[in-house]
Amino acid sequence: MGAIINANIFGELAVLVSQLSIKSTDFQQKLTQVNTTIKNLKLPPELENKVRDFIITNQSSLESQEELKRFMNLLSPSIKAQVLNHEFYDIVKQQDVFGFDERVTASVLDKISLSLYKPD
Fold first, then answer.
1. Are 79 and 72 in contact (CB under 8 A)?
2. What is the domain partition of the chain in residue ranges?
3. In a 10 Å sphere around its CB, with 0-12 CB exposed, 13-18 middle and 19+ buried, how is residue 73 labelled?
C-alpha cells in the first residue's frame, strides 16, 4: 500500500515539474521575442530596460488574466452571470447613481465583464 502512495506522490510531482517547465519555456520564448523586437526597433537602452522590466514584472498578471479568460469561457452564460453577480453585486448596489433600483442593478450586472488589469 505504501508503494502505491509513494508512486502516486512521485507521479503528481512529475506532472507539477513538467507544467512548471512548460510555463518557463513559454515565458522564455516570449522574452526572446521581446528582445528580438527591441533590437529590430533599435530602442534606446533606457526604453529597452523599461520594456524588459515591464514584461518580467507583469508576467504573473498576464498569466492570471489568461487563466481567468479561459475559466470564464468554460462557463455557461447563466453560470457566468452568477459568477459576475457574486463578484460585483455589492459594488454596483452601493453606487448612488443607480438609485438602489434592483432592475437597474441587474441591467448593469448584465453588461459587466471580468478583467484583470495592472496599473501602468
1. no
2. 1-59, 75-120
3. exposed
Q: Which three cell numbers stand for residue 14?
A: 512529475
* AA letter at 16: L
pTM summary value: 0.46
What does residue 78 show for φ and ψ, rounded to 5 degrees?
-70, -40
CA dist., res. 108 & res. 98, Å (int): 9
Number of neighbours of residue 102 by Cβ within 10 angstroms: 9
- Over the stretch 87-120, which tens digit does the pLDDT of each residue have? 888 888 888 887 777 888 888 888 887 776 666 6
Is-contact 65 115, C-beta < 8 A?
Answer: yes
H-run or E-run covering 31: helix 2-41
Give the rounded distance of the alpha carbon of 26 from its chain centre. Answer: 15
